Amino acid sequence: MKLDVVLGLQWGDEGKGKIVDVLAETYQIIARFQGGPNAGHSIHFDGKKYVLRSIPSGAFRKGTINIVGSGVVLDPVTFRSECEAIEAAGVPLRERLYISKKCHLILPTHKIIDAAQEASKGKSKIGSTLKGIGPTYTDKVSRIGLRVGDTLASDFKERFSTLKQKHLEYLRQFDFQFNAEEHEAEWLEAIDYLKSFRLIDGEYFANECLENNKKILAEGAQGSMLDIDFGSYPFVTSSNTICPGACVGLGIAPGHVGRVYGIFKAYCTRVGSGPFPTELNDETGERLRIGGAEFGAVTGRARRCGWLDLVALKYAVMLNGVTDLVMMKADVMDDFDTIKVATSYIVDGEPCKIFPFDTRADIQPVYKEFKGWHKPLGGVRSESDFPYEFRVFIKFVEEELKLPVKIISVGPDREQTIVRDEEYSTPYHTK
Ligand code: GDP
Ligand code: IMO
Ligand code: MG
Question: Which of 84, 157, 213, 318 has the fewest CB atoms within 10 Å, counting from its CB?
């Protein structure tokens, strides 16, 4: 069987959690492959909202196994509070959740380093979620990190102390106040909690599942424009958010990849610093922010908002080998008279069709304008009820990206999902 992948094509918060939850019904395994609690994936059903951080968004679906894959960095304290909230909702999480022993652990001192580094950057700060993501991946690459499987070793506490000491030495260079002991007891307790879950050799498990004809859905975190290699560096996260990251983060060979679902909003948002060519620092930006409830699921920060950017989107489609597009949140623009879409840029005065290397370049978008549809999409359940202007908008995006939009989401709830492919066996069919 194949490994299908769900990824964000923009700067994160595209609605990956919602779509994974919708698709999870038809997969046996759902696996997160990178990132950590910097992610906040929202799921709405039965009038309730849940936000998942490190746990895959299939957790609410009966009959699924959810894997926290090796490429994820795990904070045991956040993990514990997340698990307790899900269990309190009546979900038998322990039956459904497996954790790869190769996941790296986020220590309390990783979070302190994150904060100290950001504070020292002044105006050029990245806008990190301060969850310790960058410092944990740095230790992984430096080959000094601690992994989930290490918690089973008898000398784990000594190894923890050794790494903590290294962090404290590193922190001496910063003029930054902190209390390294403040969260240590809670962290060590959370490690014991973590050990009560099934800790597995994730790569063997995932490959056995594929051999046994089980379908795996990989869930990306963040978005392609935040990829460590291909995003707007240095204003990126510290992992590979793009499709190959799923193979590396789960230990599954590239030949197994089947469908690649590319999720995008009908407009754009970005949290934190860095280039955002179509950003709207005006009333329209504010309308998108309020209408789309564009406030971070993790930090509560107001998200920067702007028009859909097809230059960036084409780039992301190319990087990921997207097969199926998924359009989210067009309903937020229900009342707009005009909707704009960037089709190219003027970069430092020159026409440009690619996302520029230089994050300091002056990027002016060239827009195509569309007429608004002035009809509430939130209650629409069938493609045949789409307003004409909305169809025109979708068709244009499909033609530009040379790919079909297979799922259209018109609200946060599971039910507000229109599927345009008979091959998908979700209950959200319209044809
Ligand atoms: P993720 O990180 O990609 O999973 O996305 P987030 O959960 O951080 O942000 C997406 C937000 O939009 C959440 O609050 C969702 O509940 C909400 N949402 C998802 N799809 C839709 C949609 O089609 N319309 C509207 N209005 N909201 C949506
Ligand atoms: P989901 O999975 C949106 C952004 C941060 C910051 C940069 C680096 O919910 O889409 P980090 O904490 O990773 O060092 O921050 O990346 N960022 C996100 N933005 N959605 C996310 O996750 C994000 N995870 C990180 O705001 O600009
Ligand atoms: Mg999010």
Answer: 213
